[in-house]
Write a structure and sequence with these properties.
Elements: H1 17-25, H2 50-63, H3 69-76, E1 81-85, H4 97-115, E2 119-121, E3 125-126, H5 131-141, H6 147-171, E4 182-183, H7 187-202, E5 206-216, E6 221-223, E7 228-247, H8 250-253, E8 262-268, E9 279-282, E10 287-293, E11 299-303, H9 307-314, E12 318-325, H10 326-330, E13 334-337, E14 340-349, E15 362-364, H11 370-378, H12 407-418, E16 423-436, E17 444-453, H13 457-467, E18 471-473, H14 477-487, E19 491-492, E20 494-495, E21 506-508, E22 511-513, H15 516-529, H16 533-536, H17 539-542, H18 545-551, E23 560-561, E24 565-566, H19 568-573, H20 575-579, E25 588-592, H21 599-611, E26 618-622, E27 625-626, H22 643-648, H23 661-671, E28 678-679, H24 682-705, H25 723-744, H26 748-777, H27 783-803, H28 808-817, H29 821-824, H30 843-863, E29 871-877, H31 883-888, E30 896-897, H32 901-906, E31 910-915, E32 928-932, E33 937-944, H33 966-1000
Parallel strand pairs: 1-2, 1-25, 3-4, 8-11, 9-14, 18-26, 25-26, 27-28, 29-31
Antiparallel strand pairs: 5-6, 5-17, 7-8, 7-13, 7-16, 9-15, 10-11, 10-12, 13-14, 17-19, 20-24, 21-22, 21-23, 29-33, 30-31, 32-33
Helix pairs in contact: 1-33, 2-28, 4-23, 5-6, 7-15, 13-21, 23-24, 23-26, 24-26, 24-27, 25-26, 25-27, 26-27
GO biological process, one term: isoleucyl-tRNA aminoacylation
EC number: 6.1.1.5
InterPro entries: aa-tRNA-synth_Ia, Anticodon_Ile_BEm, Ile-tRNA-ligase, Ile-tRNA_ligase, M/V/L/I-tRNA-synth_anticd-bd, Rossmann-like_a/b/a_fold, tRNAsynth_Ia_anticodon-bd, Val/Leu/Ile-tRNA-synth_edit
Length: 1001
């Protein structure tokens, strides 16, 4: 509104001049000028109520053809390809906020790139195999069934889930190749994966071995590191056990009384592994002592550094008899197993032995520990059969007292009881322990025959070398990634389930067989009949004579097909090879921080093995959603927030109002793109809603102001525009450059802050306020009005384009309501967006920014509680060429003016530049402020204006009360001749109205 102008009930309109005329002259005989004021006019709603938000989102998506955007930009954009490879979500349930964060961040990225003219490649995918889906299929079936039954039900479940998730992703406005998504159960994906498996096998990366792996007793399958989650509150049974030493050096024996028994004291939190003990490890670089306990009078060997710690744990005095180096006392010593006294075992040096806790002697069971296994191989100790079965129970080969007992519970107690005479102390120990991420049950480490990908030192170093060339956001995650990669053991890729990609090998006794010809034959069968043929085909179909010959076995040889399937991390880890165009390298992978040990790592390892390079140029990692109290969302806590409830509202809209899709997207961009975990709460969403409403209000003002603006005929070229409007274009250029750079850097939260700052401070409160008088009260087709409309059209263009990646529905809604079809009939994402011309950036306007901001602040401070529009402003300096005044004169070259860029910006009656010798003479006024500028002091003084308020524009620039100002008088006179011509018609129309009213009565 210009300087307090009251809102009119109508706007002067070319379409209804008679009605506007009547509005202007009917006011109890007094002329009303409200109909001569050109107020904004648009059908674009200020707000959309909660009940209509979802309906409006769907209408806009349909009108703008959201689902066709992807194909359109692939065909019409002329820029380079930009590849964002979609990490496949798991097809086992409804969408949640984590899905929304991930998919919307990806969509913001690709929409920005599409607007820049790049040809975006984004194929959505789903991870379809694995135990959770198989378990749900079995639950639905209520019985085990055959492998093909399980696979059929699992496939059906995954397919239904994919469709539900896809519908949610589309509802959120995600632009993707929805016609050709990739699904890891599709036959073309499965066959390519089988071929890639053989490529790895042929290169020597795949091998089969009997070695320890993480094992889930609850799901009876091997697990990879990425399938674990750690429970920090797990409680294990803790025991100190003495192993009798049967052979020690003479130097040690000499310090002991004749016939004294000496034992090695070990500490473990896995007593169930003690029956499988094959060695005790020590640190060759530390001292060890022979001690005597005060109560039991046992003689024990422990690390010298831990004697004080053991004194507290054992609860008795410990007397040191002698101290030796670890090598001297233990290198040539041996001990017996308490459960197998006739079994003499060795002490082994171990680099992994530390002095942080325990006894400094580590019980070693190579069948149940990764370091134990490696150390045993190093010292030539043969692996023994595993004493624990697939269900996590002691096997039949164990002692009768242990057979069939679950090792983590009753089995541990039973072992402790068997070792009673050798147990020094028992207790409980709370620590972080690995759990199966699916069943949420503890896992164990047990040896079994599995397939692995070789991750030796050379392979890990090559992967680390490739990772150095990858940009990682945030950079702080690089160290975590490198550490996990450097410490990763061989990758166990086999699983003992049905729902997955079969490992394509056959066995002759224990010898595994496969070949390129066999792989081609299997893939041919699968392409013809589907992946289930691995379980349904006859031996003759799967292994015809020519394949047997190529495998090197006779026609009648007994062969069995492998029953293992591949780890689902191998499924998704090879997706770069299945989905990406050559050379199979994406511009960016964008996933949660947890994928450092998951998809990021599996993709890197497979790509380095097969191509020698990383499959991505950039990694972007986002955090996770938490509830308002910072807790992880889970069904058990009842704190899960459904994205559909946010966008469409709950059953009770008062309790759970509908915020709409764009508010959800704004929350994602503004709050989750800082790489940290983020809480979500209703007050946060309400704040996002208000922020989107501010942007909406700004766009609405522009639309209304441009209702009579024709871009073909009314746009002014840059030199013809007024200085204030050119200054706004300067600000607009800087804003666009800054936000574009933030989008390029994927700093979407900062981009949102920049947009909000521009909307609130530079557009609404600064420029819009400054041009309302011109926009509403100048002659409709005047150069001054067309100048600010030209600037507003550019503001609208830029603002729509910089918000469109985050708020696509709002951006397309602007196009839907725009009154200039020649410019806005194609849609936001279907027009060639040109960045602002460089001529908008002017060094003189850069110098104006700070002085103008200081002047506005000084005027508001001097005005205090009074209204600036009632005052004249004086800018007083002691020299005529001060930098401060020179900058301000860009907006007002005259010494004094009532119509200038400065009067518009300051919202005052007039602005006058003066020069005096001494500022102190004027500084006593209570409405004066002295500013220290770069070269001198400047006085800003406000004086009550002597001019009267204009009846039309309400500015205090009229020569006398009740009169129009000069500008408004001129506008009125220009319009008056039109009204005279219409006055007779209007009177006739009034008489006709009265007759019709009387007739109806």
């Amino acid at each position: 509104m210009p300087h307090g102008l009251a809102r009119s009930c109508c706007v002067f309109s070319k379409s209804r001049p008679k009605s506007c005329f009547r509005t202007c002259i009917r006011n109890s005989g007094k002329i009303s000028y409200s109909g001569t004021v050109l107020l904004p006019k648009t059908g674009f709603p200020q707000r959309i109520t909660g009940a209509k938000r979802s309906e409006n989102d769907e209408k806009i998506a349909k009108y703008a053809c959201f689902e066709e955007h992807y194909a359109w930009q692939r065909e019409n954009n002329t820029g380079p390809d930009f590849i964002l490879h979609d990490g496949p979500p798991y097809a086992n349930g409804d969408t949640h906020l984590g899905h929304a964060v991930n998919k919307i961040l990806k969509d913001i990225t690709i929409r920005h790139r599409s607007l820049k003219g790049d040809r975006v490649h984004f194929v959505p995918g789903w991870d379809c195999h694995g135990l959770p889906i198989e378990t749900k299929a079995l639950t639905a079936a209520e019985s085990q069934g055959s492998p093909t039954d399980v696979r059929c039900k699992a496939r059906s479940f995954a397919s239904a889930t994919i469709q539900k998730q896809m519908n949610s992703f589309k509802h959120w406005g995600v632009m993707a190749d929805w016609t050709k998504p990739y699904r890891t159960f599709d036959v073309n994906y499965v066959t390519k994966q089988i071929e890639a498996f053989y490529d790895l096998y042929e290169k020597g990366y795949v091998f089969r071995d009997f070695k320890p792996v993480y094992w889930s007793p609850s799901n009876r399958t091997a697990l990879a590191e990425a399938e674990l989650e750690y429970n920090a509150d797990h409680v294990s049974k803790s025991v100190y056990v003495a192993f009798p030493i049967v052979k020690v050096p003479d130097a040690v024996r000499s310090v002991l009384p004749e016939g004294t028994e000496l034992s090695a004291l070990i500490w473990t939190t896995t007593p169930w592994t003690l029956p499988a003990n094959q060695a005790i490890c020590f640190s060759p670089n530390h001292q060890y002592s022979v001690i005597r306990t005060s109560t039991t009078r046992r003689h024990l060997v422990v690390a010298s550094d831990l004697i004080s710690h053991l004194h507290q744990k054992l609860g008795e005095e410990l007397e040191v008899i002698a101290t030796f180096s670890g090598s001297d006392i233990l290198s040539n010593s041996s001990y017996t197993h308490p459960l197998y006294p006739d079994k003499e075992l060795r002490f082994l040096p171990g680099d992994f032995v530390t002095m942080e806790k325990g006894t400094g002697l580590v019980h070693s069971a190579p069948s149940h520990g990764f370091e134990d296994y490696q150390n045993a191989l190093k010292h030539g100790i043969a692996m023994e059969d595993c004493l624990v079965d697939e269900e996590g129970r002691f096997a039949l080969s164990c002692r009768p007292e242990l057979r069939g007992l679950p090792v983590l519970t009753e089995g541990s107690d039973a072992v402790t009881k068997l070792l009673a005479n050798h147990v020094v102390r028992t207790g409980s120990y709370t620590h972080s322990y690995p759990y199966d991420w699916r069943s949420k049950q503890p896992v164990i480490v047990r040896s079994s025959r599995q397939w692995f990908i070789n991750l030796d030192d050379d392979m890990r170093q090559r992967a680390l070398s490739c990772l150095k060339g990858v940009q990682i956001l945030p950079e702080s995650a690089r160290t975590m990634f490198e550490n996990q990669l450097a410490q990763r053991p061989h990758w166990c890729i086999s699983r003992q389930r049905f729902w997955g990609v079969p490992i394509p090998v056959v066995f002759q006794d224990e010898r595994s067989l496969t070949s390129r010809e066999f792989i081609r034959h299997v893939c041919k069968l699968m392409n013809a009949r589907g992946p289930d043929i691995w379980w349904t085909a006859t031996d003759k179909e799967l292994l015809p004579d020519e394949v047997r010959e190529q495998l090197g076995v006779c026609k009648d040889a007994a062969l069995t097909r492998g029953q293992d399937i591949m780890d689902i991390w191998l499924d998704s880890g090879l997706s770069w090879k299945m989905v990406l165009p050559e050379p199979c390298q994406a511009d960016v992978y964008l996933e949660g921080l947890d994928q450092v040990r998951g998809w990021f790592q599996s993709s890197l390892l497979t790509s380095v093995a097969l191509t020698g390079k990383a499959p991505y140029r950039k990694l972007y990692m986002h955090g996770f959603t938490l509830d308002a109290e910072g807790r992880k969302m889970s069904k058990s806590l009842g704190n899960v927030i459904d994205p559909e409830t946010i966008t469409k509202g709950g059953k009770d809209l008062k309790k759970d109002p509908a915020f709409g899709v764009d508010v959800l997207r704004w929350w994602v961009a503004a709050h989750t793109s800082n790489h940290e975990n983020v809480p979500v709460a209703k007050h946060v969403l309400a704040e996002c809603q208000e922020n989107v409403a501010k942007i909406r209000g700004t766009l609405r003002f522009c639309l209304g102001a441009l209702s009579d603006f024709d871009h073909t005929h009314h746009v002014l070229v840059y030199p013809e525009m007024l200085p204030l409007d050119r200054f706004m274009l300067h600000l607009l250029y800087g804003f666009h450059t800054r936000v574009t750079s933030l989008y390029d850097e994927m700093r979407y939260n900062h981009a949102c802050s920049a947009v909000l700052n521009f909307v609130v401070n530079e557009a609404s409160s600064f420029y819009f306020q400054a041009v309302k008088d011109r926009l509403y009260c100048d002659v409709e087709a005047s150069a001054s009005r067309r100048s600010c409309q030209t600037a507003l059209s550019h503001v609208l263009d830029v603002l729509v384009n910089v918000t469109a990646p985050v708020l696509p529905h709002l951006a397309e809604e602007v196009f839907y309501h725009h009154g200039d079809p020649g410019k806005y009939d194609t849609g936001v994402f279907r027009r060639a967006w040109q960045p602002p011309p460089r001529e908008w950036e002017r060094p003189e306007f850069s110098q104006l920014e700070k002085p103008l901001a200081r002047l506005r602040e000084a005027v508001n401070k001097a005005a205090a509680k009074s209204r600036p529009l009632l005052h004249d402003v004086k800018i007083v300096s002691t020299s005529g060429d001060s930098h401060f005044a020179s900058c301000l004169r860009l907006l007002q070259p005259e010494d004094s003016a009532i119509h200038s860029g400065l009067t518009d910006v300051l919202q005052v009656a007039s602005v006058t530049f003066e020069q005096v010798d001494d500022l102190t003479v004027l500084a006593d006024s209570d409405k004066a402020v002295i500013l220290d500028t770069e070269d001198e002091k400047v006085l800003i003084a406000l004086e009550p204006t002597k001019m009267a308020a204009c009846e039309r524009c309400r500015r205090n620039i009229s020569s006398e009360q009740g009169r129009l100002c000069t500008r408004c008088e001129d506008v009125y006179q220009r319009l008056h001749f039109k009204w005279d011509a219409l006055k007779g018609d209007a009177n006739a129309e009034e008489q006709q109205d009265k007759v019709q009213t009387k007739s109806r009565t």
